[in-house]
Design a protein that fits this description.
Structural class: mainly beta
CATH superfamily: Ribonuclease Inhibitor
Distance between the termini: 59 Å
Mean pLDDT: 91
Strand content: 15-25%
Shape: globular
Number of domains: 1
CATH topology: Leucine-rich repeat, LRR (right-handed beta-alpha superhelix)
InterPro entries: Leu-rich_rpt, LRR_dom_sf, SDS22/Internalin_LRR
Keywords: Leucine-rich repeat, Repeat
CATH class: Alpha Beta
């Protein structure tokens, strides 16, 4: 069944547009240069939220209310370890299947243990020095991207029996003889 067209209502000053997002399932805010999501409506119907290429340095706590969310991307933002930490307590997002934290300011693997259905996890292009923490990742993981970091050792992935793609290129891995 096709979604009804989104109704656009010009505001009185014709400078802003009001859009009814109440039944929207995908929200792509790529390259909006957002510093926060204060001006963004986040309907609980969302299954995909793409915040790629913004200036976000913290998580909006309203994301925790998106109980239908399957895909969440914070690619190319300014998220650091402290900023991503709250996500590990957002039990309402436990059904998340794809989490993209690529190209941020992470120094360690975030705790993703609550995501029991996680299929894709991308932490490439960060400042991660160790794979420590991946032992908590769901065994459902099929794709793991950790390339372009500072990782020196492959560890904590023995339980990932469903893994089909493992990207570790451009790290500090050394072959020992």
């Amino acid at each position: 069944m096709a979604e009804p067209p989104t109704e656009i209502k010009p505001d009185q000053d014709d400078q802003t547009v009001e859009i009814d997002l109440s039944s929207t399932t995908t929200l792509d805010l790529t390259s909006f240069q957002l510093h926060d999501l204060d001006s963004v409506e986040l309907p609980t119907s969302l299954t995909e939220l793409d915040l790629t290429a913004n200036r976000l340095s913290r998580l909006d706590s309203r994301i925790a209310n998106l109980i239908n969310l399957k895909k969440l991307s914070f690619r190319q933002n300014l998220i650091d370890d402290a900023a991503i930490e709250p996500i590990s307590r957002w039990d309402s997002l436990s059904g998340l299947e794809e989490l993209v934290l690529r190209d941020n300011k992470l120094a360690k693997i975030p705790d993703v243990s609550i995501f029991k259905k996680l299929l894709v996890f991308d932490v490439s292009f960060n400042e991660i020095t160790s794979m420590h923490g991946l032992s908590k990742a769901s065994s459902t993981l099929k794709e793991l991207y950790v390339s372009k970091n500072e990782v020196t050792k492959i560890e904590e992935i023995d339980h990932l029996h469903e893994l089909q793609i493992l990207e570790l290129g451009s790290n500090r891995l050394r072959v020992s003889s």
